Amino acid sequence: MKYKLGEKKGMRVAYGETLVKLGKEFPNLVVLDADLSGSTKTSMFAKVFPDRFFNVGVAEQNMMGMAAGLARMGKLVFASTFAMFATGRAWEQIRNSIAYPNLNVKIVATHSGITVGEDGATHQMTEDMAIMRCIPNMRVISPTDYYETKSVIEWCARNEGPVYVRMPRRDTETVFASEEDAKFQFGKGRILEEGSDVTIVATGEMVPEAIKALELLKQEGIDAQLISMATIKPIDEDMIVNSTNDLIVSVEDHNIIGGLGSAIGEIIADHGLNKRLLRLGIRDVFGISGSATDLLRYYRLDGESIYRRVVEELRG
Amino acid sequence: MSTTPSIKNTDLEELERIAKRIRYNIVKMIGLAKSGHPGGSLSATDIIVALYFKIMNHDPKNPDKKDRDIFVLSKGHACPALYAVLAELGYFDKEELWKLRKVGALLQGHPSISIPGVEASTGSLGQGFSVAVGMALGCKLDKLNNTVYVLLGDGECQEGQVWEAAMAAHHYKLDNLIGFIDRNKLQIDGCTEDVMSLGDLKEKFKAFGWDVFEIDGHNFQEIIETVNTAKSLKNGKPKMIIANTVKGKGISFMEDKVEFHGKAPSEEELERALKELSEDI
């Protein structure tokens, strides 16, 4: 296998580091946060560029509106908080104040998905990709690892218009060897491994789990193709259409309704593809408290569970 | 166009004439569209006319010029007033007014930045206020000497976001932000104090750290003088002007009538309204 899992590193740390780098290059870059800068790592930017950092307090709706106003005045705006509050609390502000006028605001949310862990259901955002994906003008990106996050944030700064980026709280294994190796291509899936028995499409923090599953499948004699799908919208339609396997398995730390699995299902339906789709994710339930590792096992989203479910599906 | 501190009587008479023409066009465009919000457009007319014809530094030929004053209509449903003013000033062809709310028309049912002269896409209440706060902050960052104006409805102040924005404007010391509340005391479902009492808006904004003024929102002299005073106070505090107004102002049978919040006049009502307004315009 071309890609080997590396040490665990935080995507949100990559975000903070990249903001600092970009802050030097873009004098019009400003960062907003809603009292979670320590957690989202925008605090790293705040330390270097205190005059261009605005902590708006626990007021996400106003943050999105202010982001829109600043963007209208020519600023390159990054607005951050947890995925729950960014997309849930302030959904309509994102839709009407940012996306409708197509303003240059990058909403970068941390603490996505079930792996938020101990804080439980009220903080585990498993609907964000669904509710961001259905907003016109909005692009949705779920980076794979630390290195790709850096490349994604760079891409955000260099491309006009609204973007939603989600990343988890926990540190995850790196998939790529360097930022260069991870060079993000917007709208393109990435084939990490070729295989002729099944196609596994994973996004974000689920990619390392899928890689673990692939190792186990290989031992079982099952040859899986693995696609890392960082851009959720616009999704890489061609890659799904051109995959030659009959079974596609989507893996996401998100409700199986509305996210990656749904997006793939739409492609299968639109093109009348003769493929089966197994959607792995959170099966339309609210989360519970627990450690990230225990929760992944509980919701059958860890490498070993993914492996077992693929085997069950292939062999019955 | 730039601010002139002294106001001549001839100027005030001219503003009255313009406002009447604007009201004529508001009622006509809503009547032709058979849809829209006449009540709140008419109550806000004089404020918007004063801003665009007397107070603000802006240029219809160069709508994006960097140091322009900015106006955000947070109560976006009053856009017929804004559209009529922008058309009068040449931001776009006046003929567009008669296509309001029609498929393929430039003029959308609520303000959109796709329309020349419109600074923010608004209409979902509370949101334009936050956008204006962000704009005022952006102007401060760029060390501009301009002013950002934002017009809110009184019913709009029931939105929680309004108070988030009010807090932020004070926190960031945005003395380049001047707000107006179109205090016409009515909202779709009835009197503001019956639906959800706003209480003492003056004290509320004061408590949020704003300089607050209260005026007659149909008196051009008061509007202009109060803005001049507000602009001169470079004290790090945002300014709120509570403008007491009459919903449906200028058309006898619409004045203070809640049913004309979001209802277009019938053909017969339109004829009556236009007749009332057509003298000396």
Automatic annotation (TrEMBL), chain A:
Instruction: State which residue ranges cross the membrane.
Output: none
The similarity annotation says:
Belongs to the transketolase family.
Q: Which key words tag this protein in UniProt?
A: Thiamine pyrophosphate
Name the Pfam families on file: Transket_pyr, Transketolase_C
What Gene Ontology terms for biological process does this UniProt record contain? Answer: organic acid metabolic process; sulfur compound biosynthetic process
| Nuclease recorded as keyword | no
The protein's matches in Gene3D superfamilies, at most eight in alphabetical order, are given as:
3.40.50.920, 3.40.50.970
Q: Which SMART domains match?
A: Transket_pyr
Q: What is the protein's given name? A: Transketolase family protein
**Required co-factors:** thiamine diphosphate
Instruction: Tell me what organism the protein belongs to.
Output: Methanothermococcus okinawensis
Q: Where is the Transketolase-like pyrimidine-binding domain?
A: 9-175
- List the residue ranges forming a coiled coil, or say none: none
From TrEMBL, chain B:
* Keyword Transport attached: no
Cofactor(s) recorded in Swiss-Prot or TrEMBL: thiamine diphosphate
Arranged from A to Z, the UniProt key words for this protein are:
Metal-binding, Thiamine pyrophosphate, Transferase
CDD domains given in the database record: TPP_TK
Q: Taxonomically, which superkingdom? A: Archaea
Pfam families this protein is in? Transketolase_N
What InterPro entries does the database record attribute to this sequence? THDP-binding, Transketolase_CS, Transketolase_N
One GO BP annotation is: sulfur compound biosynthetic process
Q: Give a GO molecular function annotation for the protein.
A: transferase activity
Occurrences of domain Transketolase N-terminal (ranges):
17-275
**Family designation:** Belongs to the transketolase family.
The record's section on PANTHER family has: TRANSKETOLASE N-TERMINAL SECTION-RELATED
Name of the protein this chain belongs to: Transketolase
- Phylogenetic classification of the source organism: Archaea, Methanobacteriati, Methanobacteriota, Methanomada group, Methanococci
